């Protein structure tokens, strides 16, 4: 039996009832966000969609095989035009819809692009194609292409059934690209549209409030956040997000009052955010920043430690820990924290700048110069890729707060180092590990910590003991100083 006939039999083996075909005919990109096929109650429909995908894929394979056989059997005569076996373009767009509903975004994009290829002149006539294509581009953060697809959709079909979903995503993308007037226009259009929406109205209001915040319209943002808190129907997660943003507003903006009044309010809001969502390391990090700003070093360390326990891969937290250690004149501990930060985020400009300040204060000009250069590169990279799409994104630590003349320091060190002799082996030893040696040094710490953790995992407590007998601050030191290297192994 030939492979082509086997494929044909496979195609014949997939049978569907009239009811199943009717269900499939009604499925397209408009059900995205509403029909959640991964939910247990939609298991049967998911199986049906998977069967349809398999059938369509076999159709494509069979058509291509037949075309290949036909081409091989044609005589080698350039004047003869061979008959092409065509695949209905609707096959590709339907396949794209099914993959989208299954959240198989790469496969959906591939199918949509095939439809665009065969329907290059008429693709705009199918609104569900434009919508599905825009959703896929939006998923991959390809905002330029997503905006183009969505705007084309609204132009050809102003009364599209999911116009509110389109306006919402356009608003979020324009906010990310700092086109704030367009963002506000589309978010408000999404808010006033009473058509069914996959995103609750309260979330849209939150995005509008955050839009005011990123524009620096502090009072407008504060009023909108507080108005949202009066809504008793919002989820605990959203309540935590609102309190966190409100707390950070109080921390950052002098226009909201005197510091002695603002910081207690900020701490109160962040504590309320923590009560609403106790698993957020982000909230604890911001709480630590507030404590640090008023000199409560111990409380700040505890908040940072708890933040690390919740979300260990946070470079901002380790940079803040480094600042605290540096302020407490503990350069070795500060070095370890900063190294953790730049290992987690190699473009973390604040960590690199603060590490440079630390090296310079210890007389290690070459290491300081290298760190300042990395800080400048990190700042450039972050400015070109910064994503303000998510309102819960952590506020970025400011380099300017510790060193407002970074460029001047780079120029100064560059001119001095150009005339300075190279360090010799007999020169005085450095106070801190050099930037190069730090990675080697902490690699050995990783090995030791891994062995220690494996040992702890095998220790059984004595019946009369509540805990292992280690010095009181041992686990705090282990967590705050050594654990980041262990976390990097995960």
Describe the fold and architecture.
- The chain has helices at 3-13, 18-25, 43-73, 89-101, 105-118, 127-139, 143-156, 163-176, 180-192, 201-214, 218-229, 236-252, 259-276, 281-293, 297-310, 315-327, 331-344, 349-361, 365-385, 406-419, 435-458, 474-487.
- With 490 residues, it is mainly α.
- Among the domains are: 1-72 and 84-160, Tetratricopeptide repeat domain (Serine Threonine Protein Phosphatase 5, Tetratricopeptide repeat, Alpha Horseshoe); 439-487.
- The longest helix is centred in the N-terminal third of the chain and has 31 residues, at 43-73.
- The radius of gyration is 29 Å and the shape is globular.
- The model is unreliable at 1-9, 78-82, 383-403 and 452-490 (pLDDT under 50).
In short:
It is globular and about 80 Å long.
Percentage of residues in helical conformation: 55-70%
Structural class of the helices, strands and pairings? mainly alpha
Low-confidence stretches: 1-9, 78-82, 383-403, 452-490
Oligomer: single chain
- Name the CATH superfamily assignment of the domain at 1-72 and 84-160: Tetratricopeptide repeat domain
Mean pLDDT: 80
Overall body shape: globular
CATH level-3 fold name of the domain at 1-72 and 84-160? Serine Threonine Protein Phosphatase 5, Tetratricopeptide repeat
Taken as a percent bin, the fraction of beta residues is under 5%
> How many whole angstroms does the radius of gyration measure?
29 Å
The helix-strand sequence is HHHHHHHHHHHHHHHHHHHHHH
